[in-house]
């Protein structure tokens, strides 16, 4: 399948960014596999949803960001979704090791964990029913027990800061992925700029991670490339330029993304809730529109695989979970993580699989990600300062 862009295993993936930054800062036991200029302090800004191909296609709206493109893009990992990518960035590990294997995935109680809210739906196939918190029953530190890069940096004497929206404090995803350092809640561009520049001015060594989600939000609602999306991109471009121009000597700003995005017409998507064949033999249906974890009842996997292949056809790849693991899409997979991966995986190329009844909000969105196309997998690695 020549359209599939597999995650990079050789040092140019999103999970390699923080170790490379720490190596550039001279912190022992880290290796720079990306090519970061030597520095005393490092800032890492993640622009949610700004894929490499989107940036290239809209360079006129982001001339400063485009001017920083001096190296090949990184691969985000699999699936190309925020919870997985941020955890890969923060832990330096693939999904098969850190365990956050998708937008939603199977949890031990028989439901689907939604990591953004750390809640689960327990009804069959994730259907009707209120979500219940799993913060106590399946704590984030148990789901993702590996020490984060941020924790290891703190132990090495680095002043680590996390500049993200205030409501992220204490969230399941923060506890699972962004443990370590000082939490710095930021609300708008001004807050974020101030935190980044304060870290830049620190005597060091200081590592600051910042996040902005506006491009992703408007891409989901209006579609990547829409006028709303382009206006947001212009603001991000001006913001990055403002910060970069105020960097003191010896400080590096790295700009990355967690995934790209594709534009889909919801009316042309496959609707699992209106096609009984796609739910026959299925106990849970997780993932998201562009990549689905399909969990089969005992003994039903082969029938489920055949039904999904018949429906998806050439619009994507439908494979077993074992094949996805063997192909290395999740990286090394631990025994604890393996049950979280679907018995069948639907990786979409030209369409998506919506759930108009169970996921009415997500099913109406215009922009999506999660799959292994270049538009979703490739993310920029932009560097200023040094």
Give a short overview.
The chain contains 16 helices and 20 strands.
Structural notes for this entry:
Strand 7 (159-164), helix 8 (172-177) and strand 8 (182-185) form a beta-alpha-beta unit. This protein has helices at 17-24, 52-57, 63-67, 82-91, 95-98, 140-143, 149-155, 172-177, 189-200, 214-222, 227-245, 276-279, 301-312, 321-326, 360-363, 374-377, and strands at residues 41-47, 74-75, 105-106, 112-114, 119-121, 132-133, 159-164, 182-185, 206-212, 251-256, 262-263, 270-271, 282-285, 291-296, 316-320, 344-348, 353-354, 367-368, 378-379, 382-385. The model has no long low-confidence stretch (mean pLDDT 96). It folds into 2 domains: 14-95 and 144-263 and 373-385, Alkaline Phosphatase, subunit A, CATH 3.40.720.10; 101-138 and 265-365, 2-Layer Sandwich (Gyrase A, domain 2). It is 31% helix and 20% strand. A 6-stranded mixed beta sheet has the order 8-7-9-1-10-20, with helices on both faces. The protein has a 4-stranded antiparallel beta sheet with strand order 3-4-5-6, with no helix packed on it. A 4-stranded antiparallel beta sheet has the order 13-14-16-15. The protein contains 16 helices and 20 strands. It is of the alpha/beta class. Helix 10 packs antiparallel against helix 11 (227-245).
């Amino acid at each position: 399948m020549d359209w599939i862009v597999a995650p990079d295993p050789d040092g140019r993936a999103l999970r390699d960014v923080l170790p490379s930054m720490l190596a550039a800062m001279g912190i022992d036991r880290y290796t720079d596999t990306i090519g970061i200029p030597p520095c005393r302090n490092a800032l890492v800004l993640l622009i949610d949803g700004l894929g490499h191909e989107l940036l290239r296609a809209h360079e006129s709206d982001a001339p400063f960001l485009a001017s920083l493109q001096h190296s090949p893009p990184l691969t985000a990992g699999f699936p190309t979704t925020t919870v997985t990518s941020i955890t890969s960035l923060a832990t330096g590990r693939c999904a098969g090791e850190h365990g956050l294997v998708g937008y939603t995935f199977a949890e031990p109680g028989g439901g689907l964990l939604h990591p953004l809210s750390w809640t689960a739906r327990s009804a069959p196939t994730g259907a009707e029913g209120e979500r219940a918190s799993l913060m106590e029953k399946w704590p984030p530190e148990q789901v993702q027990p590996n020490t984060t890069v941020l924790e290891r940096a703190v132990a090495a004497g680095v002043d680590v800061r996390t500049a993200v929206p205030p409501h992220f404090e204490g969230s399941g995803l923060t506890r699972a992925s962004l443990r370590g350092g000082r939490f710095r809640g930021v609300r708008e561009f001004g807050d974020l700029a101030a935190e980044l520049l304060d870290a830049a001015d620190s005597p060091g060594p200081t590592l600051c991670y910042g996040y902005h989600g506006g491009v992703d939000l408007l891409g989901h609602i209006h579609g990547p490339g829409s006028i709303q999306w382009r206006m947001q991109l212009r603001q991000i471009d001006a913001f990055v330029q403002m910060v970069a121009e105020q960097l003191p000597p010896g400080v590096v700003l790295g700009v990355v993304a967690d995934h790209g995005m594709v534009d889909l017409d919801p009316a042309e998507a496959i609707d699992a809730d209106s096609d009984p064949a796609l739910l026959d033999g299925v106990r849970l249906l997780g993932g998201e529109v562009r990549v689905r974890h399909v969990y089969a009842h005992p003994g039903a996997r082969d029938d489920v695989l055949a039904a999904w292949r018949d429906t998806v056809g050439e619009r994507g790849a439908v494979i077993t979970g074992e094949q996805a693991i063997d192909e290395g899409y999740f990286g090394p997979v631990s025994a604890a993580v393996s049950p979280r991966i679907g018995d069948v995986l639907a990786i979409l190329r030209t369409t998506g699989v919506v759930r108009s009844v169970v996921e009415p909000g997500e099913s109406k969105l215009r922009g999506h990600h999660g799959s292994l196309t270049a538009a979703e997998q490739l993310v920029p690695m932009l560097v200023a300062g040094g």
